[in-house]
Amino acid sequence: MVRDRSVTSFSNSTLAGRADDVETLNRLARAARWGHSGSAVVTGPTGIGKSALLSAFLGGGACRHATVLHGLCEEDASGDPLSGVRGLLGPIVQDVPPEGGALLALTPGALAGEPPHALAVQRAFHGLYRLVANELNRRPLVLALDDVHHCDELSLRWLDFLLRRSDGLPLLIVLTQQAEATALARGAPAHRALADLTAGRRTTMLRLRPLAETDVAEVVRQYFPAPAAPAFVTRAWAVTGGNPRLLGRLLRALRAEGTGSGVGGADRIAEAGGHVLAGWARELLDRRPPWVGEVARAVAVLGERDTDHLGPLAAVPADVVEDALTVLREAGLLTSGGRHLADGAVRAAVLAQLDGQALSGLRTRAALLLSDAGRPAEEVADHLLPLPSISEPWMPGVLLEAAVRAEARGAPETAARYLYRLLEVDPDSVEVRVRLAGALVETDPSEAVGLLRGALTPGVDIRTRARIAAQFGMTCLAAREGSAALGILEGVLDTLDAELGSDPLPADRELRTLVESVLMIVGSHGRNTIAAMSKRAAAMTVPEGDTPAQCQKLAAMAVLTALDGQAPKPAVKYALRAARSPQLPLKSWSLINSAFVLDLADRTEDAGAVLDRLLRHGRENSAVSTYALALSIRALHLHGRGALPDALADARTAVQICGAERWGEMVVLPRLALAGVLVDRGEAAHAEELLTGTAPVWRDHFVWTYHRYLLVHGRTRHALGDAEGALALFRECGRSLEEAGVRHAAYLPWWAEAACVLAELGRAEEAQEPAAHGTRLARRWGTPRVLGLAALARGVATPGEKGVELLGEAVRELSASPARIAHARAELVLGQALLAAGDLRAAREHLRAAADLAQRCGALALNQNARGALLAAGGRMRKMTASPLGLLTGMERKVAALAAGGAKNRSIAQSLYITVRTVETHLTSVYRKLDISDRAQLAVVLRSPGVRAERVPREASPRREQR
Questions:
Q1: Is this structure's pTM higher than 0.85?
Q2: Is the Cβ–Cβ distance between 1 and 72 less than 8 Å?
Q3: Could you point out which of 47, 635, 846, 896 has its C-alpha 20 to 30 Å from the C-alpha of 163?
Q4: pLDDT at residue number 959
């Protein structure tokens, strides 16, 4: 049926964003008044505002002098012949002669089953035409029929009949139609009739577009009197896609819950919009044919990647799939131009119509379809993950293959999801447990330890057990449970020796080497086990380093050999051999240990190259904990070289990574590295906060963290003015290192720190003991860095000219080393000694050198001390500030300033005579050092007080860039 919506007047309402569309209809109405008859079809998706636009037009001034007849087609109207005409013409049929053809047309059911060309239908058409012509002789006529996609065929045929005979008559026909109706009614008689009607040259097609963001802002003002936050408007527009009905529902929902249009309201839009979209989806699908819902559910299950299989999964032909997609897209349930659902809430609402069994069946069919089509195993497995059970025989194989592929492409978390489902099928599977542990070692090492412990069953053959034991050892190390692995590793080695004999096969020999290397790595971390492990390593045969296991063993031996404190040559030889092949798939600890030894030996370029390889390994394999650890080690390496800005950036990034992971509190080294840099940057209070947050349980049992914590904490207390507290921490560091059997001059030189603190306290004689201890160690290792530190320690402990001579020796030795901050410190101490001796000229020379070095390193605290002493000696020097630019190199400062000023990368490259790639590299480094993510933040940082901006070259100006 058709509801009669005839009107004589309408309110003069205005619609947001529809002024141009209303004016188009007004223009057609004015033309019709002068005899230029025509029609207009207003089309658009559900909720776009077709009916509202029609009402606004009919109530406007353009229709004031016309007879307006308005009807609305209901969903069941298509089976009632001429029901649309009856609804339209009802107000003017009261005077129809009873024997006229119009009376036949206006009698419900009179023409049921008659085709359009039947004689009775044609008589009815002519009778209706005469009726309308009489009205047109009195005044212009506007016929408006809403939702014509529900209209019956004969009504549409008669409107076409009328329009073809309306030349010179003041007639305008306005129809509204859902855009998706074509796909829904394709091939139906009414659809063909509507197509014939709109094909004429007198028909204007008016497609309504979604509201623009400015239009949404106008609608928001109608609901909320207070000014809306820009973010509120933007998010409301994005969530609703500019659909007026959806927008209205969203705004009413927010208003009903008491949410305003400010920033807080913007934060609520995502959740509220999801509920609105979900309700919208349910409502639309309930009113559409079943095949639309089938395709919608197939889209929800398959997602965007596999839309070629929608037809088979939904069990509908390909042309029907396209029609269904058109319906869904026009309704706003699919992304514009895409084939996937617009929102997660929409997806959930679409699938909610299925019970659990039906949904599982749909997902199983989807997995089979993709598998038969040869799709990658991961795509197939993604459909198996949500199933309540892995019940079919083919499913475990798919999950295992997917896990292997995920591991190969460096996606351990994805692999873990597949393997967890496999473990449900076979909880005792050794292979699954081992694979799952490997996937979890970077994200949940404690869980991985439990899995491997369960795989180390007595029934496993010794070779498999050995491989699992090696993995168990490295996983225990990551979980900070290394002591739990030592007994198992030693037992496996004994069993291997007993079963493999004195001349094992090459593969067995490699397996034994692997277990032995893991034992050394794990044992070298414990404060109570490193001494015994050093003795064990000294009795081992040195491998060639031709295999990954041999390289791992070589690197571990390099560390233990170096920490014995003898000449560096053997340890460096082992480290270089362990890391020498760029093609060899080295384990991360091969690189970590090699870099550690090379750094101790002042082979800074070699150490840096190895650390870069380690970082690439972490990135390429999504090894989060390895990457954070590598950043921490590189921060220590850069700090030792005096590159404080880069060290700060690496350490800060490592701390941020760990802070976002559940295992983050177990990893102490990033905070120790950052605290050490902060002390030299003059931020000792911040360093103290970091150190206070390190849990003793994760630091005190391990050689590499406990002693570094003591040294860094001692330096922090010293910077905060607590010299006695610092001295106690330095002495505890030395005592514990001696107890652990670690006797190395360059590794955590507590003795140099203790000697300097004692000298400051006026206890120079007492400083001679740590100075002598450090000198003995330094002469055995023999690098310029440790020899310079030893001379510095002896110099502060020796009064008079002899002490000054020793301090001069320290300056000379350290100037030949990569330790620029230590060099600057030696220059400062020497300058202070000369100042105390009254040699002002020489003092100023060394103090100025100290200040210059500290400034180039970014060591703010040391620079301030040197500058203060220089002023006391009668010198002058500009004060170093904590400007952000102090963290950047000269070229980075230029690139940053130009980028912040609006210059594009290409213009920056041209103005500085570098490549665009180099500009990108510098900007990445700038963002990392300043802890920012984009140019807008860069501009804010560089506008801070005390920052001098670089001039933007003419060719790099934004205006020139746009030309």
A1: no
A2: no
A3: 47
A4: 36
